[in-house]
User: Which sequence fits this backbone?
C-alpha cells in the first residue's frame, strides 16, 4: 500500500466529522444555500483530501447534473459530491465545484452544543420517540441503500426537507427526506408526487429505513452497506 499524503490547511477550515481530516477553507465557499438529504450543504470552489466515486446522472431540483460522490481520503466517509457537468446553461457555474454536507463542521464546533445534545438525548429517552404505528404499515417490500425499508400511510414526529426529483427503480418521483423531530437524524423519505400512474398509490405516504428505527417490540435492525437492492424503490445514490 502506498504512502498517504494529506494536505494540512491553515486558517478557518472545514474538516471530516469522523476523523478530522482537513477538507476545505471557508474562504473557498461559493454558496451556503445548498441542501442535501441531511440538511444544509455548502458549495466550495476547491476541496482537498478527497477521492471521487463513479460519475452518474442525478435529477436535482435545478435539473439533471452529472456528479460524483466524494469521500474523505483518510476514513473513506462520504462527505458530499462534485459537479462534473451541469446540463442546464444556468447551472454551468457549478461545474468543477464540490458540495460538502454541513454535518462536516470546523474544528472545535458541533452542530449542537454539548449541553443541548445531552438535553436532546434525555428528552428522547423520556419520550421514546415514536414515529409510526404498526397499523399504518402499507408495505415491507421497499429497499434503501442500507437494506430494508417500510412504506407507511402515516408517520409522526418528523420534519420534511426540500422536495426534489429522484430517479428510483420504479421511475421518477418527487420526494422529500424526513427527519426525526427530536435528534434531526434522517429516517426516510416522503413521496410527494409519483410520475408514473402505476406508482400513484405512494403519494402522501412515507418510507422509514428499517435500520434507522426500532420495531414495535423495541428490536433493532442491522443493515449492510453491501445489501443488494432489488424489488421496490431504492434511492438514486
Assistant:
Amino acid at each position: 500500500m502506498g504512502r498517504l499524503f494529506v494536505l494540512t490547511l491553515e486558517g478557518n477550515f472545514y474538516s471530516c466529522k469522523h476523523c478530522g481530516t482537513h477538507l476545505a477553507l471557508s474562504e473557498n465557499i461559493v454558496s451556503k444555500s445548498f441542501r442535501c438529504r441531511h440538511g444544509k450543504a455548502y458549495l466550495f470552489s476547491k476541496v482537498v483530501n478527497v477521492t471521487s466515486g463513479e460519475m452518474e446522472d442525478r435529477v436535482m431540483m435545478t435539473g439533471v447534473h452529472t456528479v460524483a460522490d466524494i469521500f474523505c481520503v483518510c476514513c473513506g466517509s462520504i462527505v458530499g459530491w462534485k459537479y462534473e457537468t451541469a446540463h442546464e446553461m444556468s447551472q454551468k457555474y457549478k461545474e468543477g465545484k464540490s458540495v460538502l454536507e454541513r454535518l462536516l463542521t470546523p474544528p472545535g464546533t458541533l452542530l449542537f452544543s454539548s449541553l443541548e445534545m445531552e438535553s436532546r438525548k434525555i428528552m428522547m429517552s423520556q419520550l421514546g420517540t415514536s414515529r409510526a404505528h404498526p397499523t399504518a404499515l402499507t408495505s415491507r417490500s421497499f429497499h434503501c441503500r442500507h437494506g430494508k425499508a417500510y412504506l407507511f400511510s402515516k408517520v409522526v414526529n418528523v420534519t420534511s426537507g426540500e422536495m426534489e426529483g429522484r430517479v428510483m427503480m420504479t421511475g421518477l418521483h418527487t420526494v422529500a427526506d424526513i427527519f426525526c423531530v427530536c435528534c434531526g437524524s434522517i429516517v426516510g423519505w416522503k413521496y410527494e408526487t409519483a410520475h408514473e400512474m402505476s406508482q400513484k398509490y405512494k403519494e402522501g405516504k412515507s418510507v422509514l429505513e428499517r435500520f434507522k428505527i426500532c420495531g414495535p417490540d423495541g428490536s433493532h435492525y442491522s443493515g449492510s452497506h453491501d445489501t443488494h437492492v432489488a424489488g421496490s424503490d431504492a434511492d438514486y445514490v
